[in-house]
């Protein structure tokens, strides 16, 4: 349906970490907490017409396989979350700290574990704690991933290899030699939405659901982002929210469940001036290819097919 309102693509993503491990000290206390968080998050969003993207650690995919199949069939995208400590081989650092060869081995092992758990091949990927080097996007594309959400523009945590100062703030094809630049490699990077100028402890203010109330946090951050996109004439506008699988989204009395509901009401308000387009990461790539003109279609013509149907069977 034609509309005079400009499209605003909205992604809700969740990092699904293993329960009770040193590699995920901020993860859920147990698998029951994890399952309740995932189920509540997806249920609320799907009921409101939004399509979540779950970035699942292989252990989480294995533990919650029936739940993943259920939410996948309902419209949730099942994507991969990579942390070297979660794969065999004694890797102790975050992904961006390793060489290209080591990164390829780590991601390949995580991918294999994910596929064994769910029997599907994920097309989208995120690195834990936004860790990446200039080699990472090339590795991911070579291994068959077609889109991801690895960057947090403005973040500067050197010991995590998560340095995103000057990174492109909007969805873009990547440069094979630099994680900070847009380029012609047809891997769509969908940054978590941030205010790169608002830094605290090296972390840019972002659209994590848990960061604050809608009025004090999300509304002003989104207003600033929309203003920037309007001033720059951003062609593919997107908001990418993020959260983790440790919060009680299943409980109507929980403050974060109420915050998520309030975010959805804020998006209803934004629909007066914007065509709100709910997207998974894979769906955003399909929309991106059709929105940004001949340059995008030409750049994508040599790429392997995008895995458009990524839901569990």
Task: Considering the chains and any ligands shown, give keywords for the structure.
TIM Barrel; disordered C terminus; ten-stranded mixed sheet; 313 residues; 9 helices; two-stranded antiparallel sheet; alpha/beta
Protein model, in words:
The strands form three sheets. Strands 1, 2, 3, 4, 5, 8, 9, 10, 13 and 14 form a ten-stranded mixed sheet that branches. Strands 6-7 form a two-stranded antiparallel ribbon. The relative contact order is 0.18. Strand 3 (about 75-80), helix 4 and strand 4 (about 125) form a beta-alpha-beta unit. The model is unreliable at about 295-313 (pLDDT under 50). The protein contains nine helices and 14 strands. It is globular and about 50 Å long. Helix 1 packs parallel to helix 7 (about 255-270). The chain is about 35% helix and about 20% strand. By secondary structure, it is of the alpha/beta class.
Reading off the top of the CATH hierarchy, the class is best stated as: Alpha Beta
Radius of gyration: 18 Å
Strand content: 15-25%
Distance between the termini: 30 Å
Give the proportion of residues in helices. Answer: 25-40%
How many beta-strand segments?
A: 14
The major pleated sheet works out as: 10 strands, mixed
* CATH fold-level topology: TIM Barrel
* Uncertain runs: 293-313
Please tally the helical runs, counting DSSP H or I stretches of 4 or more residues.
9
Mean pLDDT: 91
Order of helices and strands: EHEHHEHEHEEEEEEEEHEHEHH
Shape: globular
